[in-house]
Design goal:
Elements lengths: L6 H8 L19 H4 L8 H27 L3 H24 L9 H18 L1 H26 L6 H25 L5 H23 L1
Bound molecules: fe (ii) ion (2 copies).
Length: 213
Amino acid sequence: MSSPLSNNERSASSQPSAILGAASRASEQASLHVASVIPPFSQMPRWLQAELRSDHAGEYGAVMIYRGILAVSRDHSVRDFAERHIATERDHLRLMEETVPSSARTQLLPLWWLMGWLTGALPAIFGRHAVFATIEAVETFVDHHYRQQIDRLAEQERYESLRELLLQCQEDEVSHRDEAAGLAGTSRGILMRLWSAIVGAGSATAVIAARRI
Ligand SMILES: [Fe+2]
Ligand SMILES: [Fe+2]
């Protein structure tokens, strides 16, 4: 299974000294040297390893969602939206690849590759509103997912840098959610509401699986 990262991105992420900007968002927050500020993955408690494994899988899936959208949609507004967001998701994925060693990543990445791609490509067949509503549903889930990790880490001083990293990712996801919600509009048919519920439930199931496998 090939990585959704380009060769340049792969070589950058493989350098220990690479400066890891979490952000391609406009505010461009301070960059982080993940390897130097976060305790080694192997020394983290099991629950945190499982959570980060799910974060890595989720960011991998996010890149695939936008690749699915870009493979199908010819709508300029959708493509502009997807190209901006995929750049941020690739930054997130790079951060997670720095944090979670390859031996500790979920074995279900091929499934995330396929499910992510379909989660982007299927709504793109039905048009821009379906795409934006799908991203709103995904990012609503991801916001809650990061939030519960951030809250739990708040009790553990040793992981303040990791908490800040997750906060940066969460801020980006919230911005993605709000942009998508604004573009999707408020009127949703029954099929779109059903699809959004399926996307939310599918994301929750996938996270549970990635924590364990
Ligand atoms: Fe992300
Ligand atoms: Fe996102």
